[in-house]
Every structure is written in C-alpha cells, then in structure tokens.
Design brief:
Chain B: It is found in: Endoplasmic reticulum; Golgi apparatus, cis-Golgi network; Golgi apparatus. Chain B: Belongs to the TRAPP small subunits family. Sedlin subfamily. Chain B: This is Trafficking protein particle complex subunit. The complex is a heterodimer of chains A (1494) and B (143). Chain A is 30% helix and 29% strand. Chain A has 34 helices and 68 strands. The two termini of chain A are 134 Å apart. Chain B has a single domain, classed as Beta-Lactamase. Helices cover 43% and strands 24% of the residues of chain B. The model of chain B has no long low-confidence stretch (mean pLDDT 81). By secondary structure, chain B is an alpha+beta fold. Chain B has a five-stranded antiparallel beta sheet, sandwiched between helices. The longest helix of chain B is centred in the first third of the chain and has 20 residues. The chains are: A alpha/beta (1494), B alpha+beta (143).
C-alpha cells in the first residue's frame, strides 16, 4: 500500500487559494484545515505568483476534435487537482491600502485584474477579502462597491476580516470559511457535472476517455464527499476497463495488459477504501472477490506471467493491509452460517492473514514464473533496454531517447518491455518478501488459534528459507511444524517436512539428525503411489521425493550405505566424515523414532526372590520397510549386574569384548522384519533386593548406529504414532497374552527371608505393681547379626496408641504401663557395656543394640515392664539387623514379633469394721447428718473395734502374701492403736486364684474425731511361683482406708449372755446401760415374749442411771426350743432424749443345744488357731462371719441337715412296697388305714392316728392297678389333705396311662414314673405340680452289676421308647427298631444299630401282652445278638400273659430272655411272678423315698 | 471438478484422502485439507455461531484458496468429510447432495466387520464408490 502515491491513499480535500497579505496566511490555512470537512490552502504571498494558478499546458482549441488519448489516466492528474487547482481564490487586501492612497488603489486594481486573468477559463471562483485592523474602522461603502465591481463578484463574496479583535476575527473568519465551503462545493459540482455531461453525451471516440471521465467524476464526487456517486463512477470505470482488455489495441498486448491492470488496481483500491471506510466489510470483500476473479486468468503471455503474479499478489497484500487498518469488524448482522448459500463468505476472508498468505503464495508463483521466464528469455534478448522509465500515464513505460540535447520519449516494444520488467524483477529479493508475508500470516493465524493454518504458513516460510539457503532457520521452522503433523498423523505432510529436514541437516553437517530424520522417513506409514520417480525436477515436490514405499527403502538403504562408509553421491566429505563417528540415537516413549525401533520388556514374574532366576522377555519392533540386522543387543537394567548382551551369531566380531560379569549370549539371528515383533527371552538373576527395572535396550546396527531404546512395559505401551491409524493386523509384543497385556518392565526383588528367630515369652498376665519380666530371645538360625537393633514398643491393645488417656496425661505424667528397663543376660561385661551405651528407653519405647552374633548363637534379654493400672498392652518387638559387616550393611532385615499382655490387679482388698459385739450406742455423741455420713463407719472410743481385711486373689496364679499391716498415718500412731489379731504368721500365706484371705485387726481409738484417718493397708506380696524362686520380687501394694468417725456414745447398751444355752437349762441375760454423761438418765425398757424362751422379770420397767455409772437389768431365761433362737426382744428408751434402741437380730440371738455339747470349746478354739492361714478362708459368697468364739457351734449345728419327716399311708396292695420304702429311710413312718367295706360294697375306711398327722408331711402310696381299688383310694386321697397336714404327696408308681405321684406343702405335686405319653401331664389341675421320675437309674445300676456290662447294647422296640429313654442311655450303643402293627400282628424291623454279638437289652416303659418284646427279641436274635434281655418299668401283664416269658414255659433258647427286669410299680404282677426267672424286680422303694424328700 | 476428498478422524488424523487430479499436487491438497480443519474446529467450537444450526451436518464452504474451494461436512460421530473442488460456482445443494452420498458410502465402509474403528479406510470398494460419486458430481455440474 505504501507503493501508492499519497494522493491516492488519502481522501481528496477541497483546495482553495489565498493571495496577498502573507502575514495572515498561516492562521487562515490553519483555520481552514481544521474545518469539517477540512480544506487545503494554497497560499500565495503576493499577486505576482498568481500566474501559477493559470493553466499550465498549452491551450487546446476547444473546437478541435479530441485526439485519441495515449493513456487511460495521467499520473499527475489527481495530484494536480489536489495541489494546484484551487476551487476558489481569495484576494486579500488591507483596508487602508484600498481606501487611502490612490496609487495603492490602482495597484490593488491591477492585482485583481491579474488574478482574474489567471483564473480565466476556469470555473475557479474569486473572493475578495478586506483586512481591517479594528472593527471600528468603517469602510466607505463606495470603496467596497468599487472593489466588488472591479472583481466582478457578488457582494457576499466580499468578506471583511478584522485583524486585531479576537471575536471579530473569528466571526469574520467563519464567514470566510462558509464562503469558501460554498464556493468549493459549487466548483466541484460544476466540474463533475461538466465531465458527467461528456459521459452522457458519449461524444468521445475511445474507451480510455470514458474510463478517465469516470475517474474524474468520481474524484470530483470525492472532493465534495459524495461517496455513493464516487463509488458508482469508480465501479463504472472498472466495468469499462474490464471490457477494454479484449477490445483495446492501442498498445502492444503485454503493455496494454500492464496498463489496464495498473488502472484497475487504482480503481480497485479506491473502491475498497471507500467501502471499508463506510464500514461495508462484506461488500468490500465481495468486491475484492469479484475483482480477483475477473483478473485471475488475465495472465498474459507466459513470459510475463510473473508480472501478473506480482500484481495479483499485490492485490491480496493491499487488501489485507486495508482490512488490517480498517477498524470495521465483522458485522453482527451477518448470518452466523459462513460458507453456505445465504452467506457465501467464510471466516478467514475477514482476516488479513488470509490475504497475506495468499499474497505470499502468489508471490511464490511469481518467483516460479520468473524462473521459467529467465530460462526462456535470457538467451533471446541480448541487452536490456536502457533508461526505461514510467510515462505520464499510469501503467505505461517509455524509453528516454537522448539525441544530443534533446530528449525524446519513445514507446517500447513488448519484447523490450518484457526484458526490462524481468531485469527489474530479478533485482528484487522475492524470498524475503515471501517470508515476511508468511510470517505476518503466521503470527496472525497463530493469534487466531488456527494452528494448522499457521503451520502451513510456517512451512511456507521454511521452504523459502530453504530455498534461500538459510538452513538453520528452515530446520527450526520445519521442526516446529513436524510436531503437529506427527501428532495428527498426517504422514504425507510429515514426509515432505522430514525430507526438507533431512536435507537441512545434511547441509548443516549434522549426521545424527540426518540419520534420525532418514530413519523416521523410512518408517513412515506410506504405501501410496506406484513409485514413479519421474517428477524429480518438479520444483513443487520437495527434496523428499514422492512418498512411496520404494523411496522409503531407498532412504533406509542410503542411511545404511552411509553408515557402512559407502559414500553416496550428493554428500560432501565433511558430512561423510562426521558420519564415521558412532552416532548413538536415543529413543524414548515420546520420541518420533519409536516407529523405527520399539523395545518392549516384560518380566514373567511380578516379584522374585533374590538370587533366583526370573525370565524376561525382550521384544523389538521396527516399522522400517526392509529387514534390519542387529549386530548386538544389550539389555540394560538399573542393577547393572543383570545386564546382558546378545549378539548375532553370524557376526564373529569381537566387538563386545565382554565386560567381566556380563552375560553374553549368542543368538542365531537378530533380524528385525517389518512390523514383526522379534521376541527374545532371557533369564536374569538379581542378588540385590529392591526394584529391578529394565532401563533400555541398546541395539547396535552396522557397528556405527547405536540405538538406545528405552524399555517399555507391555502393559503401559502406547500405540505407535502414525501407525496406529493404519489398518493392519495388530500384533502383541509378547507371545503370552497375559504378559502382553499386563507385563511390566520392572520386577520387585523381595528381601531375603530373615533367618533369625525372635522369641517373646510371657508367663501369663502381668500384675499391677510388679516388675513384669518378658524374656526376649534371639536365635540366629541362618544369619549372623550385624549391628542389630532391637526396638521395643508398648501400645495400648485397645488401640489409641497412647498408654494414657489425654486427660490423665494432663493430670499426671505417669504412664499406666512403663517400660522400666532391659536387662541382658549375656555373660561378658564387654557386650553389656556396649548395650548399656546404646540402650535408650522411654516410657513406652525402647531401643537397644544387639551385639554381633554369628550363626547358631543366641542372645537374650529381659524386658522389665511395670503396670500401674490394669491395662491390656501390645508389646511389639522388632529386630532389625544387617547381614554383612560393611558393604551389604545398606540392606537391613527385620523380624517382628508382638505379644499381648494383660495387666491385672492382683489383689482386691476390702475391709469391714465391726464394733464391739452386743454393744450398741443408745445415744450418740453427736447427731449425724443423714446424707453422706452413712458411708463413714463410726468406731467406739477406747473400745476394741474389729477391722476385717479381706484380700482376694483375682489372678489366675497363686500369690504369696508376705505381710499385711495397717500403716497408720502420722498422728494415728498415738491416737489409735492397731493390733493384728489373726492373719499372717511367720509362714507366708499362699492364696490360690479366686480365694480370699482375711486378717483381723483390733482398732482401739483413743481420741474422738470425726473423719479420722486410720492409715493405709499395706500388702507385701509376690508370685508363688516355683520357677522364679531366686528372683522373687516382693511387691508392696497399698490401699488407703476410708476415714472413720470415732465417737464416744453417751449411752451404751450392752447385752451379755452366755455363748450358748442348753435346752431347759436356765441362764441369765443381762442388759447393761452405761451412762457416760454427767446427767442422771431415765431409762425405760420393754421386753417382748419370745416363743422359745420363758423368762422371769418385768416386761416393762423404768430405771435411772447415775452419771458415769452402769445400770444392769437381768433376766433369767429358760430356752424351750433348740437351735438358733431369738432372745426376747428388748427395747431400751432414753426418756430425756426420746431415743430408743432395739438391739440387732444377730446380737439378740443365741444358739440352744438340746443337750450339753460334747466338744470342748477351748480345744476347738486353739485348733482354729493352729491352722493359721486356713482358718478364715471362707467361700466367696459367705456373709461377714460372726465373732470367732461362737463360730464352731454354728457350723456344727447347721451341717446336720434336718430331714423331712413323712407319714406314709399306703393302700393294701402296696403294703410290701411301703414297707420297703419305710425301711430305706428313717424319716418315713408308716401309718395305716383300715380298709374295710360296707355291705353294699362301698369302702368303709378309717385312718388310724389321724390326729397325729396334724401339721405333718403326709404321703400316700397308691396303686391303680385295678379299677376296683381305685375308688377307695381316691376316697383316701380326698380325705387325707383335709386332716390339717403340712403337705400331701401322692405316690402312684404306675399310673395306668402315666406312673407315680406326690405332693408337698404348697402346691400338691404328683410324681409319675416313666409316663407313657408326655401330653398326659396336662391331665392334672393347675394346683397340682406333676413331677416325673424314671426307673432307668435302677436299670443302669443293675446293668453295671452284670458280668458283661461292656457288651451291653440297648434296643428300643419303637421310636416312642427311643424318644423317652435314649437321653439317659446315651453311653450305650443303641438299636432302634421299627414296629408296624397289622391287627394283632406286629412286624418288627431293625431301623438302625447292629446287635451282632452283643447283649441286647430291650428297654420299654410298660409291657402288656409282651408281643412286641417277643417279636423284637426274635428279630434281634436273628441278627446275631448273643443275649437278649428286657426292661420295662411297668409290668402290667394282664391275664397272666407273663407266663409266656417264664424260662420254664419258653419254647426254646431262641425265645428266651436272659433277664427280664421289671419294677414293683404294679404290685399284682410282682406278687405273681415273684422271682421266677427270667424276671427280676428292681424296687422303686429307695427312689420313692428319695423323691418324697424333695 | 472435485480434485480431492478426505475423511478426517477424531484426532484430526486423515482416515482417507484421495485426489482426483492428473497434476501432481497431492501434497498441496494435503495441506489444503489439513488447513481446512482449522475452519471446522472454529465452526464446531464456536457455540455462538453454530447455535441455530446444531444439527446441521453440512458445514458449507470452508474457505476459498488459490484455485480451490473447500467444503466441509461433519457427521454425528464427529468424523469430518472434506471436499476440494476447482469449480467456482458450486451450488450448496449440489455439495450437500455429494456429501450425503459420500456419507452413505462411508457408513457402509465402516460397517464392514473387518474395519477397525479409528483406523484408516483401506476398503477398495469404498474407493471405487467414492470415485463414482466424485465423477457424478462433476457430471452434474457441467450439465
């Protein structure tokens, strides 16, 4: 755009001229240019210069026919009109010059004349300005009229300027401006109309004029800011111009085209500018499109094509610049849909960059054209015509021809012009222009986020650089672009790029780059093309050539050749020399060279033991087009010991003079085929634990090319860039699919197993207070220990870590569990010192070092832990050690052990105060408040109070109590004497787990005190363990006694009576009332009768007790009942204080012996003293013991358990059984009933001694064997309970549907033996308690007496029997039979069990006909039972059916029962069969007798 | 005349690119197709502009370059079709029609069970079908 002349680029401004008064010119012109619209001023200092305004050229005869113009537009026409042809001329005269001197007036007149003549023939307007110095100077009217007449102007064009007055000056200047504006407008309108009239008349011969006139009209329109008209005429001009291309013949064709295009350019520029200034972006772009389209094809002859392209490029550039400078943006009204029918424009067309890019492209086109032209033209044209210069017409060139002094202008021939243009073009550096354009576009696109467009520009730049020989810049740009293409997989574009890059690196002497670019090119996924190589010379194809598979192979071959030292053509020596060097290439996971070589490494295991081999698979893949032979492959690990090398067997080179310790392996062939994995599996052994990772695979190809290929795990392997889009068969890197999908390139080498045993021994729970020892033993089995370290940690087993609660931590710093120390048991002092040095122990944490141990050694230490509270603690002990001494010491092995240890409180101590026996305060010394003092015990002053201390072992181990003392507090020693009465003697008391130990102290306080502090109970104990004899540690445990209230009661009541009484022997019972007050006390007392005592003395009485004296009330008592008896209850009342006292029941009871007891009290007392530690070991639940002297009698008495004394009635049938029962217990007395009947058959019964059974326990033995006797027995059952008896029990051994019964005080109970059907218990009423007994124990007893008790098998004839009895007979083998009744027939089968060789006992509850038993016996015998016996509880046997079983009656041994046990529940049967074999009667008598005692 | 058609995948990678010119300007066409992706990105990613036409698959003229015009089409699976033509006046309807046919051919090609999605289209029958469509487009405009 800068190429265009100024007048073209800026909008035209109206021009006025001012003449005369030069001193005023600056201010006037400034005022005019600041006007809106501004005006330019042509200032002429004096009138002599006015001739400039006169027409310069020769005067043309207006009548002469217009000649054909030599060009379309004159170059300077616009300039002329903008600078030299004013629209109006103002003549400035000073007022005093005009009015005063006539000479001056004359001068002014002549000046005016001159001016008028100068603008003669033009439509330039004239204005006269009179300059006054002040407003007050009135000009004479006639002067002004004269001047106006002289100037031949209208009066309004005579303007008066007032010089020295600011406001007047401005006002008058405004007036002048308005005059000018009006005149200008008129002038340009007139001019425009004049030219327009010519166009309309069409009175010109050539098209050129038409165009020129259009231009002029448009320019005049522009002068007066009539943009639409300007646009209209410009467009008209362009249209005509476009037509002219084909029609005009005025100039030689090439130059004609050039001229037309140059004019079109101007027109186009004007139009674009106008449109853009008006904000019509869309129209501008549409116009531009039309413009380019119409001239796109107008190339002209090929020789000058470059001119076209240059011009074309310039169009784009200029339009781009215009777009860039214009502020107008894409209007919103535009349809959002770009590029479719309703909006044919696209986004980029609004962006200047688009035009820059195209400008660059076309400029490049121009360069190609020049190259073509030079090839064609240089030979033909000998010389370039000299002194060619632009002519006066736009787009025309002429040659200056000098002949002597005269210079003539000659037109050029096309040939001459072409060579001139070419020479001009060649001087020009297109490359930099192109690069600059591309760069502009690149930056612009980049800022728009159009990276691909930017890349394309960048690529264009790079190619230009390349063409210009600036390889490093080119390479840099290409590199940047290549990244995008790689990423998006545009292989073809990448190919071209790499081709350039490859050449650049070749030129830059960078062999490594060259090789890597070449290899990448060779590995690109390109298959297209048939391999035509015939377009080598096409400059549009880059150095890469066409992307074909052959080309790829060729490139690979070239690289190989170079590597092998075969110099290929096209490379210089330096480059080849550089290639001689070994060039290691690194390929990592993001390298573009991954497609050249990829190494996938997978271990077959995830973890491996140190020293044991693990398989590792190495797979290599190459996309190179032809097979590659690898000389040597080195696999490198992070543990360099594991590296191994594989080299091709064909290669016999000693290339790898193997490093010592490296595995070298020869493989038959290491050839990589295209797209096929080469898989190698190798075994690796690692000694070092930790991570073993494959780092890289180093492949050596052709000795020079070394590729370090970073190993990749198959599991995390990514697709190959570029190749991933190829439609080809996917192959897995590993043969094993699992490995291919999840294989890892690293393997975890485990730590070697620790071969050291760490033992923690604990002897059960720890006890609070003791120093608990945990022995720790280290036994070295397979490892020696170096710089071992033992860490000990105590953690709360319930979690939480801390061994104290946070709150407690605030209160006290002490821990509940403390690690006190560690003692080693090593013998030598040296190591002990060492240990002591390093030992570091805190409350719950300890570290100590372990001495050096060799294999087989053991070492132990003991942890001393002390519990302050009962707490469960986890003890963690870990041993860390290293194997070797120094170099392997880096690696440490750890052994961990943990142990939970419960801390327990060993002894619980409780205590009880006992005040003096049978002595109670009637009146206390003070009144106690009721609420909290209840807990405080009160002790009597100067009396011997008992303190019983109870120590209970809560642990599971026996404890040894060494001493138990009361440690009085400081002042307590004098104030209170404590004596131990019983308890620990010189022998230590051993308390078994869960046992109690009691000690009695006598406390005699000597001072009255409330809240007296007695002191602490101090226990000294140790574990009673045999193992720790030598190191027995005593623990002192203290417990504080509560505070007691010591008082001296004012009135004390004490009772005295002998320790025991004897039935019928009188004794005296004293009640002593002591008055310790200083007042006379009136006492009332009353005595209540006791059932078991008769006494002499007053029931109620009163007495007076003198101060400090006693009053004794005595009564003589005779005990009437034996046992522990309540003494008559005495109540003592103090009248003065209205206080009454009834002694407690325990104090007011005495034991009465029926006769003089036969033991000697003295002895028993001493005996209890002799067994010191056992004397007061009493069961846990025992109540506080009564005072010692009375103890023994009590125990002796209570041990004799009184039996229930029962009167047993019986029915006549059961007499025998009743007698047996009575015989079996002395607490049962038989009573009789007279069983008679009236004549009508109703029973006539009489119960003998009916009065004697009053209040006694009564039982009746009934037998419901036959219905006849039931009625009378029921009568008895009704009658007996009505005789005021304590309880009634009905014994019914065989209840026809049940069995045996009884009742006690309270509910009547029924005892039934072996009830047949359990549901029958509900036959009884709610007030009857059925009790079910069984005869099975009798059977068991009998079976034990058999000669073959071990061979007995129990058989149940049916399921019912099994249900009833199997629980009681569980320890016998059992047979269960199945019984099916078919009418009278019974079919018995064995359901389970095996009778073979056994003595089978059939057990049932009752037998009637005995059919089942017989069937059963037969079956059992048939199954090989050696003997068969039977037991039934109730042998009913109606109709003498028992006879069938008698041995004498049986058909043979197969029908025999060895034994047939029955009970005597059915008296009839028993009587009948007596003891005939096989029957044996097991009597229920004992069982009934026992049952009656329940 | 259509000089080039291309199918571009999700990662803006070429899945199919075929030029129909005698001249050896394949590389140039590659560039053009590649650059036109920028316009597609712009149109697809600019929600303001594309709001009223969310469901429109035909993207219209992408941009005119040198002697070519580039038209775009975006399938509902975000696969892009690009067509480069030398015709100066292409009716939108024609372009739409072409793309519709082309889309059908593409659907058939990727429905092939042996085609792996995301890979280049190597089907020969797709190629021949495409060239038929391209030829018919050229024929349609000349008539």
């Amino acid at each position: 755009m800068e190429d265009y002349p100024e007048e073209l680029r800026t909008p035209p401004l109206a021009l006025v001229s001012i003449v005369g008064c030069p001193e005023l010119h600056p201010s006037i012109s400034a005022a005019l240019s600041s006007q809106q619209p501004p005006m330019n001023t042509l200032a002429l200092p004096d009138f002599a210069k006015a001739s400039i305004l006169a027409r310069s050229g020769k005067t043309r005869d207006p009548l002469a026919p217009p000649q054909a113009p030599a060009g379309i537009l004159k170059k300077d026409w616009l300039l002329k009109h903008r600078t030299r042809v004013p629209a109006a001329v103002a003549a400035l005269f000073r007022a005093n010059h005009v009015s005063g001197d006539p000479a001056q007036w004359l001068q002014a007149c002549s000046d005016l004349e001159n001016l008028k003549s100068a603008i003669q023939g033009k439509s330039t307007k004239l204005v006269v300005v009179l300059v006054q110095s002040t407003a007050g100077d009135e000009l004479s009217e006639d002067v002004m009229v004269a001047l106006r007449k002289r100037a031949e102007i209208d009066s309004k064009y005579l303007v008066v300027l007032v010089e020295h007055d600011e406001t007047e000056w401005n006002k008058s200047l405004d007036k002048l401006k308005n005059v000018f504006a009006e005149l200008c407008s008129t002038f340009y309108k007139e001019e425009g109309r004049r030219i327009k009239a010519r166009i309309e008349k069409r009175n010109f011969a050539s098209v050129e004029l038409s165009i020129r006139y259009c231009f002029k009209v448009a320019v005049y329109a522009e002068f007066r800011r009539d943009w639409p008209e300007a646009l209209k005429f410009y467009e008209e001009g362009v249209r005509v111009l476009r037509e002219m291309i084909a029609t005009s013949t005025r100039l030689p064709p090439t130059q004609r085209l050039v001229e037309i295009k140059a004019v079109a350019e101007q027109f186009h520029f004007k139009i674009s500018t106008l449109l853009l200034h008006a904000g019509k972006v869309v129209e501008a772009i549409t116009w531009f499109r039309k413009h380019t389209r119409s001239y796109e094809r107008v190339v002209g002859i090929p020789e000058v094509a470059f001119l076209h392209w240059e011009w074309f490029s310039r169009q784009f550039l200029v339009f781009g610049e215009l777009l860039e400078t214009t502020s107008a943006s894409v209007p919103d009204s535009l349809s959002p849909r770009f590029g479719t029918a309703d909006n044919a424009l696209t986004e980029w067309e609004f962006q200047p960059s688009y035009y820059y890019q195209l400008a660059a492209t076309y400029l490049r086109e121009k360069r190609y054209a020049i190259e073509c032209s030079t090839v064609n033209l240089t030979t033909e044209v000998n010389g370039i015509p000299e002194s060619v210069m632009p002519s006066v017409y736009v787009g025309q060139y002429v040659r200056l021809f000098e002949q002597g002094d005269t210079v003539s202008v000659l037109p050029l021939s096309d040939m001459e012009y072409t060579s001139y243009a070419l020479s001009e073009a060649e001087r020009f550096q297109d490359s930099y222009e192109i690069i600059a354009l591309f760069r502009k576009a690149y930056e612009s696109f980049q800022s728009l986020g159009a990276t691909r467009m930017a890349s394309a520009c960048s690529c264009g730049m790079a190619i230009e650089y390349y063409a210009a020989g600036d390889f490093s810049n080119a390479k840099q740009l290409f590199d940047g672009v290549a990244g995008l293409y790689r990423q998006e997989g545009w292989a073809t574009l990448l190919w071209e790029n790499l081709g350039y890059l490859r050449e650049c690196s070749r030129k830059l002497n960078s062999p490594k780059d060259f090789v890597s670019y070449s290899l990448e090119m060779a590995a690109l996924p390109l298959f297209s093309g048939s391999g035509e190589e015939n377009r080598e010379n096409n400059s549009k194809i880059g150095p890469a050539g066409s992307p074909t598979i052959f080309r790829r192979e060729a490139i690979l071959q070239e690289v190989i050749n170079i590597l092998e030292g075969k110099h290929s053509e096209g490379t210089d020596d330096a480059f080849n020399n550089a290639m001689e060097e070994c060039t290691p290439l690194d390929i990592d996971q993001i390298s573009p060279l991954r497609i050249v070589l990829t190494a996938s490494v997978a271990f077959h295991e995830q973890s491996v033991k140190p020293g044991s081999p693990v398989l590792v698979s190495v797979s290599l893949l190459s996309h190179l087009p032809s097979p590659v032979v690898i000389d040597q492959l080195e696999v490198q690990f992070n543990q360099s010991d594991c590296n191994f090398v594989i080299h091709s067997a064909q290669e016999d080179s000693p290339l790898n003079s193997a490093l010592p310790g490296q595995f070298v392996e020869a493989a038959t062939s290491l050839t990589l085929f295209t797209n096929r994995w080469m898989r190698l599996t190798h075994e690796v052994k690692s000694e070092q634990s930790g991570k073993l990772e494959c780092l890289s695979v180093k492949a050596t190809i052709n000795k020079h090319l070394v590729i370090y290929c970073q190993a990749e795990s198959p599991a995390s392997m990514e697709d190959f860039p570029l190749w991933k889009f190829e439609d080809q068969v996917e192959t897995l890197s590993m043969k094993d699919h699992v490995l291919a999908l999840s294989g890892q390139k690293l393997v975890q080498v485990e730590e070697p197993d620790a071969q050291v045993d760490l033992d923690l021994n604990s002897t059960g729970p720890a006890l609070v207070g003791e120093l608990f020892i945990v022995p720790v033993t280290i036994l070295c089995k397979g490892h020696g220990i170096h710089s071992g370290e033992l860490k000990i940690n105590l953690v709360d087993a319930r979690g939480g870590g801390l061994l104290m609660s946070p709150r407690e931590a605030e209160e006290s710093e002490s821990h509940h569990v403390e690690l006190l120390g560690v003692s080693t048991v090593s013998e030598d002092k040296e190591s002990k010192e060492e240990v002591d040095n390093i030992k570091k122990i805190q409350y719950s944490f300890g570290v100590l070092s372990v001495p050096k141990l060799s294999v087989g050694d053991s070492w132990s230490c003991k942890l001393e832990i002390k519990w302050h509270r009962a707490k469960s603690v986890m003890l963690y002990v870990s041993l860390g050690y290293s194997l070797g001494s120094s170099e392997a010491a880096l690696h440490r092995l750890n052994v961990h052990r943990s142990l939970q240890i419960d801390g327990k409180i060993p002894l619980t101590v409780s205590h009880q105060f006992l005040r003096p026996f049978r002595r109670e305060p009637l009146l206390l010394s003070g009144i106690r408040s009721s609420n909290n003092d209840e807990k405080i015990c009160s002790l009597a002053l100067n009396e011997s109070n008992m303190l019983v201390v109870n120590v209970r072992n809560c642990t599971e181990v026996p404890l040894r109590l060494h001493s138990m003392t009361i440690e009085p507090s400081d002042d307590g020693k004098q104030l209170c004497s404590v004596q131990q009465i019983s308890g620990i003697t010189s022998e230590h008391a051993v308390i078994a787990p869960n046992e109690e130990y009691k000690t009695i102290f006598s406390v005699r306080p000597q001072v009255i005190s409330s809240n007296f502090n007695l002191g602490e109970i101090s226990l000294n104990w140790s574990r009673d363990s045999s193992l720790g004899e030598g190191q027995e540690s005593r623990v002192i445990m203290k417990q504080r006694l509560p505070e007691v209230n010591i008082e001296e009661p004012l009135l004390v009541v004490s009772m005295e009576c002998p320790p025991y009484a004897i039935l019928g022997i009188p004794f005296t019972f004293y009640v002593k009332i002591h008055n310790s007050t200083s007042l006379l006390q009136e006492i009332k007392y009353s005595l209540v009768d006791s059932q078991n005592f008769v006494f002499s003395g007053a029931h109620n009485h009163a007495a007076f007790v003198l101060p400090k004296s006693d009053h004794i009330i005595s009564h003589k008592l005779v005990p009437l009942g034996s046992g522990s008896q309540q003494l008559p209850k005495i109540t003592v009342t103090s009248v003065r204080y209205s206080a009454a006292l009834t002694p407690s029941t325990s104090a007011a009871s005495v034991f009465v012996y029926p006769s003089e007891p036969k033991f000697i009290l003295e002895k028993s007392y001493s005996a209890s003293d002799e067994c010191p530690c056992h004397s007061f070991r009493v069961p846990l639940s025992s109540p506080p013991p009564p005072p010692p002297p009375r103890k023994m009698e009590m125990v002796a008495a209570s041990k004799q358990k009184v039996k229930k004394y029962i009167h047993l009635f019986y029915c006549s049938e059961c007499e025998e059984l009743a007698k047996k029962i009575a015989a079996s217990s002395d607490a049962i007395e038989l009573q009789s009933i007279n069983w008679r009947s009236f004549d009508d058959g109703f029973p006539n019964l009489f119960i003998n001694k009916a009065h004697e059974i009053r209040g006694q326990h009564v039982a009746f033995l009934a037998s419901f064997s036959s219905p006849a006797v039931i009625f009378e027995q029921i009568s008895v059952i009704f009658a007996l309970p009505k005789l005021f008896i304590a309880s009634f029990t009905l014994v019914l051994p065989f209840f026809p549907t049940g069995s045996f019964e009884r009742s006690r005080g309270g509910p009547t109970s029924v005892v039934i033996y072996d009830i047949h059907a359990l549901q029958e218990r509900f036959y009884f009423g709610d007030d009857v308690l059925p009790c079910f007994e069984t005869g099975i124990p009798l059977l068991l007893q009998r079976l034990r007496q058999l000669p073959d008790p071990d061979n007995v098998t129990i058989a149940f004839p049916d399921d019912g029997a099994w249900k009833r009895f199997h629980k009681q007979l569980q320890h016998f083998p059992m047979i269960v039979c199945n019984k099916v009744r078919e009418g009278d027939k019974r079919i018995v089968r064995i359901k389970e069990g095996n009778p073979e060789g056994r003595h089978v006992v059939i057990v049932d509850d009752l037998v009637q006909s005995g059919g089942t038993l017989r069937e059963c016996q037969k079956v059992l015998a048939a199954h090989g039972a050696s003997k068969v016996s039977a037991y039934v509880t109730h042998a009913v046997f109606p109709k003498q059916s028992y006879e069938r079983f008698l041995t004498s009656n049986s058909a043979g041994p197969g029908d025999q029962f060895a034994y047939f046990w029955i009970t005597d529940s059915c008296p009839h049967t028993v009587k009948a069969i007596a003891q005939q074999p096989p029957f044996e009667v097991l009597s229920l008598a004992g069982s009934i007798a026992d049952a009656l005692q329940i | 005349m259509i000089v080039c058609v291309a199918v571009v995948g999700h990662q803006n990678n070429p899945l199919y690119l075929q030029s129909f010119t005698e001249a050896d300007d394949a590389l140039k066409l590659h560039h053009i197709v590649h650059c036109s992706l920028d316009v597609i990105d712009e149109r697809v990613n600019n929600p303001k502009r594309s709001a009223p036409t969310l469901n429109e698959t035909f993207l219209g003229l992408l941009y005119p370059t040198e002697n070519y015009k580039v038209y775009g089409y975006l399938t509902n699976t975000k696969v892009k079709f690009i067509m480069v033509t030398t015709d100066l006046d292409v009716k939108d309807a024609d372009a739409r029609n072409f793309f519709r046919k082309f889309h059908a051919a593409y659907v058939d090609a990727v429905s092939n069970p042996f085609h792996v999605p995301g890979k280049k289209i190597a089907s020969r029958s797709f190629g021949s079908r495409v060239s038929t469509i391209v030829k018919s487009f050229g024929a349609g405009t000349t008539v």
